[in-house]
Amino acid sequence: MASLELVGVVKRFDATTVIQGVDLRVEDGEFVVFVGPSGCGKSTLLRMISGLEAVTEGELRIDGRRVNDVSAAERGLAMVFQSYALYPHMTVYQNMAFGLENIRTPRSKIETKVRAAAALLHLDALLHRRPTQLSGGQRQRVAIGRAIVREPTVFLFDEPLSNLDAELRVQMRTEITALHQRLKTTMIYVTHDQVEAMTMADKIVVLRGGRVEQIGAPLALYNLPRNRFVAGFIGSPRMNFLSVQVAGVGPDGVRIASDASAMNAAAPLPVRGDAAVGRRATLGIRPEHIHLRRASTGEVGLTARIESLEQLGATSFLYCVLSTGEKLTVQMAGQVESRRGEAVVVSFPADRAHLFDETDDGLAFERLHPRATGRAG
Asked: Which residues, at least 6 apart from 313, have a Cβ–Cβ distance to it below 8 Å?
């Protein structure tokens, strides 16, 4: 196992800077997920850690040792790719043993390591098969097994589940998480899927445009996003955003007003910050915190019209529109009797709302009473 540290890491391709001064520490045995939209630099950052891309500026350290000029083969890391990268003419056993044979590992030791990894990944009965005879999930397990036999200090995963169907993705998420708990090895995992990040990570690194937007435990990012980008990226369905105006400031928080008709914002939002009266801001509220009922004490209420709805049995989603044209998604447990085109009154607790700077330059408003910020269970 190993710790990993990035200090002011920059990557340029000619005149284009794709990684812009990243500082990050990954603790020994930690499961860290890089997440962000396509093109944000997460795979490039992983390739720099692996040694497949050179660092333009800054330092990359493994267990405190600077490894900028150390080759990929000598860093003691193992990478699992999206494409599996298996040799089609080799059996599962041969694919897993290939790397060890290249470094002239004794045959008896290869046998022991491959058999142990196969047992760990439930591949015992498949060692004689070739990749074309395997399912997508089995191929991915072989790719992971090939990494395990090398006994790396750090595992690197580059979107390993993106080629799998939805059911297999859920299964493999569980298997990789369980593998981490058994091996207790440092793992860094890249994905664009925030559900994978929330369910697998000890710590999430949210990237945008080659910069780190926020680092923290899954629930810390969910409950206390630093800015509108993180708030909108973490969580599914995504957070609702409404344009509001600061109407008043007091010791109990910030009162808001909205252009939306029939908005009752008497309850203050328990936040503090640069809240000059008249200033425009963005209110954020998650779909599961909105209820079909009139606002009571401590809540904010408004009227909306249902444009469409999805009833999934255990959960219902109402897609609404306000008089301003702003969209509002409501997530409700169970089944509802509402209909398309119906006018509804909705409300949400003021202490569940977030208030962001209108330009998204940063978090202008901080919660007075932060909620739990631990790891997702």
From this structure: 335
Cβ atoms of 32 and 207 within 8 Å: the answer is: no
Degrees, nearest 5: CA angle 40-45-50: 155
Angle at the Cα of 88 (from 85 to 93), degrees rounded to 5? 85
Nearest to 297 by CA among 350, 368, 370, 251: 350
pTM of the complete model? 0.89
CA-to-CA distance for 191 and 160, rounded, in angstroms?
8
Q: Where are the alpha helices (DSSP H) in 5-91?
A: 42-50
Q: Which two tokens stand for residue 198?
A: 């929330």
On average, the pLDDT of the chain sits at 89
161-165 contacts at long range (C-beta below 8 A, 24 or more positions apart): 161/191, 161/193, 161/196, 162/82, 162/191, 162/192, 162/193, 163/82, 163/83, 163/84, 163/136, 164/136, 164/137, 164/140, 165/136
Tell how strand 77-80 and strand 4-13 pair up. unpaired
Alpha carbon distance, N-terminus to C-terminus of the chain: 24
Q: Which domains does the chain have, with CATH numbers?
A: 4-230 (3.40.50.300), 237-367 (2.40.50.140)
pLDDT digits (tens, 9 = 90+) for 311-347: 999 999 999 999 889 999 999 999 998 899 999 999 9
Q: What is the largest CA-CA distance in the chain?
A: 76
pLDDT at 376: 43
User: For residue 374, what pLDDT is reported?
Assistant: 57
Cα separation, 107 vs 132, whole angstroms: 26
Q: Which amino acid is at 150?
A: R
**Residue 360 pLDDT class (50, 70, 90 cuts):** low
Does 363 have pLDDT greater than 60?
Answer: no
Closest CA to 375 of 250, 218, 222, 259: 218
* Cis bond upstream, residue 37 (ω within 30): no
Would you call 73 exposed, middle or buried from its count of C-beta atoms within 10 A (0-12, 13-18, 19+)? exposed
